[in-house]
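SAMPLE LOG
Freezer: B-3
Tube label: C17
Construct: single chain, 248 aa
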Amino acid sequence: MESELGGRVVVVTGGSRGLGREVVLACAERGARVVIASRKLEACEEVAAEVRDRFGAEALPVAVNVSDWAQCDHLADTVRDRWGRVDVLVNNAGLSPHYPSLPEVSESLFDKVVAVNLRGPFRLTALIGSRMVDDGGGSIINIGSIEAIRPSPQALPYAAAKAGLHVLTEGFAQAFGPTVRVNTIQAGPFLTDISEHWAEGMREAVESQVALDRCGEPHEIVGAVLFFATTASSYASGSVLRLDGGWR
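STRUCTURE (predicted):
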């Protein structure tokens, strides 16, 4: 499984930190050429430098805000111009801002959350996925959320967008099969930089809802991504894999 990624082109949105960074490093360690895509170019360049220093792998940092349709197109074209193809796309970029109450969710906040978590993955999957078909195949991996099936009032726009990601997963799997597989990893609570801003007591409350009695560590997403990125999952498409520690 590990050698399969040698020379493959892997694009990871939100790849400069948290879960995305772990995915980038894991793929680079296995010989992939990695594209680190995130809003801040400097952060992408730092991870690209780390990839080159640690693994001697090729890395391409690209600044992109996935909520912007044109920037999604720019990312796809930039990678094609550099390496001619994409073998694995990981739609990882996500956003879930705090809000004081549901009536106080503004139109701009709602639109922003949907744009990052749903519109961006739609455009990137539609564009890159269709090119994968032309190139003979590939794998698209969406990073979802337990919120899609266990929505909380504190993150309802985010939960709705992530539920929409399930629909895209199934629909694109049908559209791009049999050569391109599309799957979702439905992530539970992970301790990334986002969790550092959780309200007091939130971590304890979350962990009380998990069979494993703890939140996940970023590196624990790697196995699931590698599974979907390689032929270990050759008969999986349109699937949603729960990775939530046993959320009750």
